[in-house]
Amino acid sequence: MDLFKRPPLLKIAAFSLISFTFFYFGKHWSNGAYPQLVFFSTPRQSIGTSPNFIKDFNVTQLISQNQPQTVAAKTVSPGGSPPTTSRTFGIIDSDGKMRDEFEVGEFDPEVVQNLGNETEVETQRNEESRVRVKRFELCEDSRRDYIPCLDNVEAIKRLNSTERGEKYERHCPEKDKGLYCLVPPPKGYRQPIPWPKSRDEVWYTNVPHARLVEDKRGQNWMSKAKDKFRFPGGGTQFIHGADKYLDQIAEMVPDVAFGNHTRVVLDVGCGVASFGAYLLSRNVLTMSIAPKDIHEYQIQFALERGVPAMVAAFATRRLLYPSQAFELIHCSRCRINWTRDDGILLLEVNRMLRAGGYFAWAAQPVYKHEQILGEHWEEMLNLTSRLCWELVKKEGYIAIWKKPISNSCYLSRDALTTPPLCDQDDDPDNVWYADLKSCISRLPEDGYGANVIAWPTRLHSPPDRLQSIQIDAHIAREELFKAESKYWHETIDGYVRAWHWRELKLRNILDMKAGFGGFAAALIDLGLDCWVMNVVPVSGPNTLPVIYDRGLVGVRHDWCEPFDTYPRTYDFVHAAGLFSIERKRCNMSTIMLEMDRILRPGGKVYILDSLEVMDELQEIANAMGWQVTLRDTSEGPHASYRILTCDKHLLLS
Fold first, then answer.
1. Residue of 315, 322, 390, 335 whose CA lies nearest to 359
2. Is the pLDDT of residue 104 over 90?
3. Buried b vs exposed e over 553-588: b needs ≥16 C-beta within 10 Å?
4. Which stretches are transmembrane (predicted)?
5. What mean pLDDT, rounded, does the chain reach?
């Protein structure tokens, strides 16, 4: 009280001292571990063009709309300034940019390997307890190239038969025998050579397996030169290079029209994927597949080169691609007996081949005249004629057939002709653990799937099969399709500008919940030189036919199980609205550990999801050693979802 009775000058001095004290503590507490005081907060910036963008459309298939909640973790606006107390991990500098001189170090076994999975029991408010892993251990060295569902030796030993290739199919570990550790990279692992240079050479230490060099020495597959593998572009049937081989196919059947009529191709028994690698320059996207057999690392080489590929086998189950997916299916000495079991494997090719599409076969029965090979050729001619395929051209090593555009030929066959048409109720897009069928998949009577337009127009044209997708939509499917495309284009444009995506040298990208493929389409529109594996989870509607009709590639999968690819496959993993759905079915740490397995060191993960899952996701990511940041979306700080950005780094020795 005496203060207010003092002279005015003393009052002013006292007030100034108090103001300065509040300013000092507010300034310093806002930059430390304490929450930032409101009057020193940086204005939030957004990556979208409008904070009300999502309100214009119903994009319920993309993002789980939950009621706004609060989150204890510190968040950063996408376009905001980085925190002043930043730490540098490997390739990310204090400005959030990737350094060109990045070089991956090795794990320090004293720091990581001997720790083990460190856990603690946490009691929730409702008095329920859960085990929280504070730190995941490093897997043993033998797991460096481990694919859980394809390397399950115990399950393979229990198979009743392996004569039809059953051992190359999925046999996932039981839940208590899953992978609960971090898969280490090979010793001396380095940042992959960027595309397009990686098409022709990769680091030896990243895929340290030289057996294929010896096995395929005379076929021009690959060679080893000092610390690199080199790929001259040859193959078993095109030792003089893939480009000349592709020119031959284009001349044999001009209607193939690579990069126009033919956009999506399946290469069966792909080797190191030179066929698909050279088609990329012709605006053709090729899914290169091969089993994990005696040439078990061929798909790993393909992925290290930056070529779309995954491990898959023609055996007893349908492949994980939709009907009418590919304009061309190619087999060059792929070591598959297409006529066995009355052609059941060629019937699977027929299911996946688009109406009016082509099957190219380069194999010894085509050009050699030995008795056994001649008999095999006659069997092939007989089978393809019963499938109503037309032999368009046979020249040199190659024979090319064309699939009919409708069911009319099938219906006009003799009633006793085999194989028969499949029943009307057969779903040719049901592929998850679905057995092969010894019948011809019917083509839609309305022509859906056959009427795709030329590339690149098809990327943004709603395809006919959009109408057949079973989804709960409050607006028309075409409007939902366009809304998704617009949303991801504007969102990724913001990512490119705010987070410098063009500098990240991203090549192999995984979208874990792809919807209609809008994320992948936006990357193409914005000129990022990458490819996307679009995964459509089995827990949601099957939009995979639409993705292929747009000229993209993808696969059906259940994220409660491991993915059929090698460790260190992807540079970038994207998951939008995935965890809020899948957590009802499986453990989120199982999915996150699988993401870590297939993510390259130096790779990035972006998770867009509801606030209610973010705390647990951050805990898991931290336990895996990822550097994480929680960010606002374009909706601002009061939205019910956030973006969790993660960087995977190695501990430097």
1. 390
2. no
3. bbbbbbbbbbbbbbbbbbbbbbbbbbbbbbbeeeeb
4. none
5. 85
